[in-house]
Design a protein that fits this description.
- With about 450 residues, the protein is mainly alpha-helical.
- Among the domains are: about 240 residues, Fumarase/aspartase (Central domain) (Fumarase C, Chain A, domain 2), CATH 1.20.200.10; about 45 residues.
- It is about 60% helix and about 5% strand.
- It has 18 helices and six strands.
- A two-stranded antiparallel sheet has the order 1-2. It has a two-stranded parallel sheet with strand order 3-4.
- Strand 1 and strand 2 form a beta hairpin.
- Helix 11 packs antiparallel against helix 12.
- The two termini are about 35 Å apart.
- It binds arginine.
């Protein structure tokens, strides 16, 4: 069945190619497609396009489809293009003529837009909860190992005194910035495209504000043509936020891979969390961390892929846009897996406490030696020269964490201030699940 069938039998190979991966991808949208239809039907009744009896029957039928989906028995049949067509087919077989009225004043273009936005909102909200758990883990490791010293590196050369507190805490603050991007992506996403039809509005007197309220959007996308332009634009914003999170994980995993080498040995994991070699009995490999690095590096190509896909598309709907779903949905899934496994690894990370005993780190106190002279009134350049001479025999007195007092230094991590900012952002992620939303909308069937 095709929603656009008009007596010509479409060539099956054409149908298969155009459906593409939608039969698999669209199952992520099923619940939201039903919820969107519920809101649409309540609105159709409100503006007098269907009567009360029809509204109640349609809502009840939609709800039974929701339950089938929860039970796993609502699948997209072969020969059916997408979830929108499958649901309409089911509605027609349950309710006949009344069932077919759900498409009144709607195109699949605004239907898929609203489904994607509701799906994306849910995914962003649950991702934020996961990011929050990881943020807290980094912060608690930072507090736990606040006093444990680490050499800080630049150019892969020992540079200055650092600490595990500073290192773990840096990834917490990085996640806090990533979360700010997720807040922005969420805000752009949380506007209602429903009612813009094919991208040009409709002569039916729809009440778009009502569907926005029912679906708990912050506002409308007003311009109908912009609604279709926004497909690809919102994905770009979401892609940037996901790529930022991926970058944080990728850089952390690179650190860990390096810090696990025999040469560094700053961190380690229990045997159950590392992998072996099929030929070299001594190997303890960080495969998990390498895969986090590889997968998150690939996620960082997402903004580029979204941009390329929509570049040079004229305004209006084009089937190219369908391919965005797969990209974004897969990225959500990949990133969730990477966040979860990072959390598991962090729950088991071991750190070494006597790293600075290695004489190669004797020189990392040279900069603070210069500062000591500066505090005695010696001009910085003169002090620098004097200390440069000392570097050859590296006779420096060591600084302690308590010598570092300014905000963000190893002696004053400001983890509370970072947490306050993070928690402020977390207040934005608060929407209902599809089941809660369906339950709420079913009040209108009474
Ligand atoms: N599967 C399509 C998509 O994701 C649904 C919209 C189809 N609209 C159309 N005008 N062909 O874009």
């Amino acid at each position: 069945m095709k929603l656009w069938e008009k007596g010509i039998n479409p060539e099956p190979a054409i149908i298969e190619f155009t459906a593409g991966r939608d039969r698999k991808t669209d199952v992520h949208l099923t619940k939201w497609d039903i919820v969107g239809s519920m809101a649409h039907v309540i609105m159709l009744h409100d503006v007098g396009l269907i009567d009360n009896e029809e509204k109640k029957n349609i809502l009840k039928a939609l709800h039974s489809l929701f339950v089938w989906d929860e039970e796993g028995s609502l699948a997209i049949e072969s020969g059916i293009e997408d979830i929108h067509s499958q649901i309409e087919k089911e509605m027609a077989s349950i309710l006949g003529t009344t069932g077919r009225k759900i498409h009144t004043g709607r195109s699949r273009n605004d239907q898929v837009l609203v489904d994607i936005r509701l799906y994306t909102r849910e995914k962003i909200d649950s991702m934020a909860q996961l990011v929050s758990r990881l943020f807290q883990k980094f912060q608690s490791l930072s507090e736990q190992y606040r006093e444990v010293l680490l050499p800080g590196y630049t150019h892969m050369q020992p540079a200055m005194l650092s600490s595990f507190g500073l290192w773990f805490g840096s990834y917490a603050e990085s996640l806090s910035d990533d979360l700010a991007l997720l807040v922005t992506a969420r805000a752009l996403n949380n506007r209602n495209p429903l009612g813009t039809a094919a991208g040009f509005g409709t002569t039916l007197p729809l009440n778009r504000k009502l569907t926005s309220e029912l679906l708990e959007f912050d506002d409308l996308i007003y311009n109908s043509a912009y609604a279709s332009l926004s497909r690809g634009k919102v994905e770009a914003a979401v892609a940037s936020a996901l790529a930022a999170l991926a970058q944080t994980l990728s850089r952390f995993s690179m650190d860990v891979c390096l810090y696990m080498t025999a040469e560094y040995r700053f961190v380690d994991f229990p045997d159950e969390y590392v992998t072996g070699s099929s030929i070299m009995p001594h190997k303890r490999n960080p495969d998990v961390i390498e895969l986090i690095r590889g997968r998150t590096n690939l996620i960082q190509t997402l903004p580029g892929q979204v941009a390329v896909l929509v570049s040079n598309l004229p305004s209006g709907y084009y089937r190219d846009l369908q391919l965005l779903k797969q990209l974004i949905f897969d990225a959500f899934e990949d990133l969730v897996e990477c966040l979860e496994i990072t959390l598991l690894m962090l729950n088991n990370i071991r750190i070494r406490k006597n790293i600075l005993e290695n004489p190669i780190y004797n020189t990392i106190f040279s900069t603070e030696e210069v500062n000591r002279l500066v505090k005695q009134g010696i001009p910085f350049r003169d002090a620098y020269k004097a200390v440069s001479v000392m570097v050859r025999n590296s006779s420096f007195s060591r600084t302690a964490l308590s010598d570092y007092v300014h905000e963000g230094s190893p002696g004053n991590l400001c983890n509370e201030a970072i947490a306050t900012r993070f928690n402020e952002s977390m207040k934005c992620f608060r929407n209902k699940s599809a089941a809660e939303m369906a339950g709420k909308l079913m009040e209108y069937a009474k």
